[in-house]
Amino acid sequence: MGAATTAPPATSAVPVPPTPHRGRRGRLARLDVTVSPYLYIAPFFVLFLVTGLFPLLYTGYVALHDWDQIMGRGEFVGLTNFVDILTGRGFWRALANTVSIFLLSSVPQIAAALLIAALLDRNLRARTFWRMGVLLPYVVAPVAVALIFNNLFADRFGLVNLLLETVGLEPVRWHSDRLASHIAIATMVNFRWTGYNALILLAAMQAIPKDLYEQAALDGANAWRSFWSVTVPMLRPTIIFVVITSTIGGLQIFDEPKMYDQYGRGGADQQWQTLTIYLYELGWTRADFGAASAVAVLLFLIIVTFGILNFLLTRRIAHDDGGRR
Amino acid sequence: MNRKTTRYHLLAVGAASSLVLGACGGSGSDADAGDGDSASGGGKDITLTVATFNEFGYEELVKEYMDLNPGIKVEHVKADTADNARAALRNSLGANSGAADIEAIEVDWVTEFKQYPDKFADLSDPEVEGRWIDWKTEAVTLEDGKLIGYGTDIGPEAVCYRADLFEAAGLPTDREEVAELLGDTWEDYFAVGREFIKNSDAAWYDSAGALWQGMINQVDYAYEDADGNVVATTNPEVRSLYDQVLKASVDDELSAGLGQWSADWTSSFQEDEFATMLCPGWMLGVISGNAEGVEGWDVANTFPGGGGNWGGSYLTVPAQGKNIEEATKLAAWLTAPEQQIKAFEAKGTFPSQVEALSSETLLTSTNPFFNDAPTGQIFADRAEAVTMQPHKGPKYFEINSAMNDAITRVDVDGTDDADSSWAKFVEFVESLG
């Protein structure tokens, strides 16, 4: 924010008398330097104001009312919607499912992305081919992915269970068992996002100066040690970015649980009902926009909390540069 | 950067940002100028939009109508699934704009849309009185006599069965004899099932949830009484049907435990998993698609507990439209018996019009996949056996979804027994308030 001072240094031997003409030029130039950047990014913020901030605040407004999807605004009810939701069983169950699926997907996902990025960073043959390859799952439409995974994880005739039975193991109840359903959904999420995150980390890796690695090698560090002591600390900002974006995404997953069975309500016992599915249930099945908006507001607060926690944690981890010398 | 470009930069940026700001400011003010000025022609040139879902068989009919009525252009919009169509219609009704001139609705949503009678035009007209089967019209008639929809098709139910599995288990295979054997109560149907599974590896039917659909549609007031009180958890009839279907499915092992429409259920048609299935007319297409290459399917002209109907649709005219009169005319034409027969020939949608039910085309139609069964005649008989439409209150859809979940927990997932699953159902219904 601090604008660079433009006063001539006091030791200047030859003071230049400023002509008015020149002064105007100078002011323009200064304005250009200070104001232009803001003007350049203004369109984004104006758009954000209209498409992001306004709906956000309006959702808060809806949450304070009795609001039917079709009949529109009813009475002002204050925090009743919030109280109803926080005292009901549905919200907490959905929150537990969401966090569980989020942890099962984000943690392995980022670890795997880091590993894949490190492999892609090596001198491979047909480098571009491999790098594009990891992005393929991201390009496939989520609906198609869900259809494929539905057939993989079907309880009775699914491919995964058929394979397990061939090996002589017990088939897993992918839909009726709560944890198993979370694992299956997390697998779908990981399939889609791991490659995408790997590419972001790879881009950051390529920017790490090579002489750091040479230094490390001279100091007798093996590949593993230089990965932990050079690569990871240098990737700190990128890792923070990836962790935060995957948190925001992970807490809002909707497509995968929605398409995990034929009804899209999160299972007969709400085994995999995430917060977004719960929100959709309230708003579009029960037509209760007031309650759905209250869930949306709560979800927003949860994501902000998680984001801040993540930021602090990741900073701690990335600061720790691989232990003692 | 030299000074000359500096000034241009400032100019350019200023201009660009004012453009963006201007665009944003402007979009709000002309949002409501987008409704086509259909009256600007002065003559009778109008465009009508018709919104349907899945397959109504209207493609050729729409062309025919345009030929008959020069000056009227009809645009037919098809949603991919019924659920998406419902969501889109609900959104347009809520916003009071964006609905098509004619909107198709499914019988299961009738109740919820009846809560907003002002959103739909009144279609009652002496011209169309008596055109449909009584119960079809009753469902969309409000207390004050207002009619909000014209019936398109219905889903009278029969029993589809695998003749090859019947034969292997020593049961008769001829469709007349099978209809005789299955009897006409649920208990008869379950009793035959208990005999069947003694001599077969297959289950008797696909899932308890599918049977529930047939059973509950025969109860006049299931979840809400005539005064609109929720009685789902206290109505003895609901509880006894619930116990009956779960005892037969789980304790007597008659159910294959395949949740209807799940990936497992779809795959199971290629295996010998179950021998019978409740099937409305439109289900035949689903079976022949899933069971491609499997021989032995047939249809028996009977249904446990009397008649049963599952599904069917209506055409409505949203009140927000600009051409309500012309839209009503088109809806009346599309749902006339002659047109419904053409739609039936195109896509197999079974008519709800009295006259169409006695049409030669319909009564002589057969289905090659089902061993050339005279399906037209069978479903016409099944439609006649339907004597009532259950009363479904505004909360029916939600409560029935919860009931389906309760049955699924016991029959498919095995995570609960009948009692503990019922307790969860009660808890849910009470939370609706």
User: What structural class is derived from the secondary structure elements of chain A?
Assistant: mainly alpha
The CATH homology group name of the largest domain in chain B: Periplasmic binding protein-like II
The CATH H-level superfamily of chain A is MetI-like
Cα-atom radius of gyration of chain B:
26 Å
Number of DSSP strand runs of chain B = 8
Oligomer classification? heterodimer
Treating each run of at least 4 consecutive H or I residues as one helix, how many helices of chain A? Answer: 14
What sort of overall outline of chain B do the alpha carbons produce when their principal axes are compared? globular
Q: Which structural class is indicated by helix and strand composition of chain B?
A: alpha/beta
Low-confidence sequence ranges of chain B: 1-42
The ordered H/E elements of chain B are: HEHEHEHHEHHHEHHHEHEEHHHHHHH
The CATH architecture of chain A is: Orthogonal Bundle
Would you list the SSEs of chain A in sequence order as H and E? HEEHHHHHHHHHHHHH
Write down the CATH topology of chain A. MetI-like fold
Mean pLDDT across all amino acids of chain B: 88
Count the beta strands of chain A. Answer: 2
Count of domains of chain B: 2
CATH class of the largest domain in chain B: Alpha Beta
Which sheet architecture does the biggest sheet of chain A show? 2 strands, antiparallel
Portion of residues within helices of chain B: 40-55%
Strand order of the largest sheet of chain A: 1-2
Provide a descriptive summary of the structure in words.
Chain B: This is Cellobiose-binding protein. Chain B: Keywords: Signal. Chain B: It comes from Ornithinimicrobium humiphilum. Chain B: It holds the Pfam family SBP_bac_8. Chain A: Belongs to the binding-protein-dependent transport system permease family. Chain A: It is found in: Cell membrane. The complex is a heterodimer of chains A (325) and B (433). Chain A has a single domain, classed as MetI-like (MetI-like fold, Orthogonal Bundle). A two-stranded antiparallel sheet of chain A has the order 1-2. Chain A starts with 19 loop residues before the first helix and ends in a 6-residue tail after the last helix. Chain A is mainly alpha-helical and 325 residues long. With 433 residues, chain B is of the alpha/beta class. Chain B folds into 2 domains: 163 residues, Periplasmic binding protein-like II (D-Maltodextrin-Binding Protein, domain 2, 3-Layer(aba) Sandwich); 198 residues, 3-Layer(aba) Sandwich (D-Maltodextrin-Binding Protein, domain 2), CATH 3.40.190.10. Chain B contains 19 helices and 8 strands. In chain B, strand 1, helix 2 and strand 2 form a beta-alpha-beta unit. The radius of gyration of chain B is 26 Å and the shape is globular. Chain B starts with a helix and ends with a helix. The N terminus of chain B is likely disordered. The interface between A and B is large, with 41 and 47 residues.
